[in-house]
Specification:
alpha+beta, two-stranded antiparallel ribbon
């Protein structure tokens, strides 16, 4: 996530630097008089000196921790889906895939009553990276008549490829390439640690992009350009195969129960037929809606994000913007039926990592610095202070006597030893402030909300701070 945010902020800085010279005024800088006033505003009390000594030797979070909020995390939830094994995305941005797989394997276990399966993240990530490479190259071709500093051309070249994504990517990739068990294509060092291969792929793709633009500028035929793009993708395929392994075309597999005992006969599959087995022959596409809470925009309106997809021939991410109370009602209905949900958050805000506890009262930064941090959710989004950064699987909710949510729990993908036994627990107040996206099976969506989702979407651009990929 850091890399993507850096690109965006770098773009803002360049835009600021490109302002005409007459925008600069002499009275806009820090003058001597202003600096004197700033210094005179400092208290320089013994308490301030003590604060400096403490802050100089300790982390801010360690000093801002709210000791009154340090009690044990309540592990009781009145509505909880069956627990399953916790995975670890390691040093990668594949939370979107881990959360999507969590939902699939939970539904499979519920449907079969005893069978469990671990799905290969390495397999689908291979195809994700190849497809994103093609999305970049074809996007460059489509925009080849535009100047290199055009906003859309810059969009492609800034980040030719990434390992983040959304649930829509899981859906499109599974529909096209299927699934395989983790035993058939296990993780490699580069699938667990994606930064180096991503850096090399980005560099190579940018080089390829310039070559394709040059071909178009020289009037090469569409057939020649397509043939060259295919040769470029063969190079990408080789780089991926050498670092992640080549995806299998068929395999033999027998399912196990929760105790690890093989309980079915071995059967020959290919990735598509295996996906059909996991999904009971029912495609993911068309079975769900995505909702979001974005208080900057009008509620009960549908929005679509251009180029927010994993495959060139795939589906743009579309969502219905709703108040949090409407989102919570559908989430509760799904959890009561034992169905987990893909969801995403600004997970770093007020997170007690040791306890795996998300509460806006965990840290009192205001008292530590003698100020306030008063922006609301809409203001935080519009100023790039907050946005969706990490996908997790919503798995439980605790309701009060009136049926209102008090606490929520998610399965995370940072390993079983992280936080609360691999999960995070969050107060409803934190949930309302820092939850953004939720994927809901259509059977839990009321008819009026379904009708709103089906309206013609308003097209928005991917540079928006809220539409960065989940990592």
């Amino acid at each position: 996530m850091t890399t993507t945010r850096t690109y965006i902020m770098s773009g803002l800085l360049l835009a600021a630097l490109s302002l005409p010279c007459h925008a600069k005024t002499d009275d806009g800088g820090i003058s001597k008089d202003m600096l004197t006033e700033i210094k005179q505003a400092q208290q320089r009390t013994p308490a301030d000196r003590a604060l400096f000594n403490a802050l100089a030797a300790n982390s801010i979070d360690a000093l801002a921790v709210n000791q009154a909020n340090k009690g044990p995390v309540d592990s009781y939830f009145s509505v909880e889906t069956p627990q399953q094994s916790i995975h670890d995305q390691k040093q990668s941005g594949r939370c979107w895939m881990f959360s999507g797989f969590n939902v699939m394997r939970s539904a499979f276990a519920q449907r079969t009553d005893s069978l469990v399966v671990d799905l290969s993240h390495d397999y689908l990530f291979f195809w994700d990276q190849l497809e994103k490479s093609n999305l970049f190259l074809q996007g460059v071709i489509d925009c080849a008549d535009k100047p290199i500093d055009d906003e859309r051309v810059r969009f492609f070249f800034k980040s030719p490829i990434n390992d983040g994504g959304t649930y829509c990517g899981v859906v499109d990739l599974v529909a096209k390439y299927g699934l395989v068990p983790s035993e058939i294509m296990p993780e490699t060092y580069s699938s667990d640690n994606t930064s180096k291969v991503a850096s090399l792929l980005k560099s190579k793709l940018r080089e390829f992009g310039l070559q394709l633009r040059d071909m178009v500028a020289k009037g090469k035929s569409k057939a020649d350009v397509k043939a060259e793009k295919t040769r470029m993708l063969a190079t990408v395929y080789r780089m991926l195969a050498l670092t992640m392994g080549e995806p299998p075309t068929e395999f033999t597999y027998a399912f196990k129960n929760k105790d690890g005992r093989t309980v079915t006969e071995a059967k020959k599959y290919n990735p598509v037929t295996f996906a059909a087995e996991i999904l009971d022959g029912k495609p993911l596409k068309g079975s769900f809606i995505m909702v979001m809470n974005d208080p900057r925009r009008e509620y009960y309106k549908t929005y679509e994000i251009e180029y927010d997809r994993h495959t060139y021939d795939g589906t743009n991410w579309k969502y219905l913007n709703l108040p949090m109370e409407d989102i919570a009602k559908m989430a509760i209905a799904s959890l009561k039926d034992g169905i987990k949900l893909y969801s995403s958050y600004d997970v770093a805000k007020f997170l007690d990592r040791k306890r795996g506890y998300c509460d806006i009262n965990n840290y009192d930064y205001g008292s530590l610095f003698g100020t306030t941090f008063g922006m609301d959710k809409a203001q935080r989004i519009m100023t790039y202070d907050s946005g969706s950064t990490h996908a997790m699987t919503l798995t439980a909710v605790d309701l009060d006597k009136d049926g209102k949510p008090v606490m929520w729990k998610v399965e995370n993908s940072w390993g079983p030893d992280y936080g609360h036994k691999g999960c995070l627990v969050m107060t409803d107040e934190w949930f309302n402030e820092f939850m953004f996206r939720l994927v809901i099976d259509k059977k839990y969506v009321p008819a009026d909300i379904m009708k709103q989702y089906e309206q013609k979407p308003v097209m928005v651009m991917p540079e928006d701070p809220l539409f960065l990929p989940d990592e």
